[in-house]
Amino acid sequence: MWRIVTHRFAASAFSGEGARLFGGRWNLKGEPVVYTAQSRSLAFLEMLVQDEPLRANYLLIPAEIPGDIPRLEIDAGQLPENWRTLESRKNLEEIGSRWLRDARYCVMDVPSVVIPAERNLLLNPAHPDFRRIRIGQPENLKSDLRLLRNLSAAK
Predict the structure, then answer these.
(1) CA–CA–CA angle 130, 115, 142 (5° rounding)
(2) Could you tell me the superkingdom of the organism this chain comes from (predicted)?
């Protein structure tokens, strides 16, 4: 799995602090969660729809979840039909808050809103199994400036 951040947040990339401060699709403000993606490209796409302003340089940080750490899997079929819209955000926040509150699983595996056939892995940094997740060395990601230029022009 992969986490993408700007250089400024490299040291705290797996703290859950950003989601705690601002909330996220699957969590309320005040709840620390680490959002990761199953692939580099999905992590980048997720950043593109979130980050303002877009930047040319990011860090990609790999991480590996040991196979014996159980996860809560949520499939699109278990979600409201409009789960990808802003109107359903409250439903998703409730699912995430319940997952955090129950504290049975360190990982919640959810479909990506950007590409529903791909997966995001949400991590609970307060869960005892979190310390077993192996965080790798950050890699520089230099994106194609044409992509950033075209996305900025489309706004």
Answers:
(1) 75
(2) Bacteria
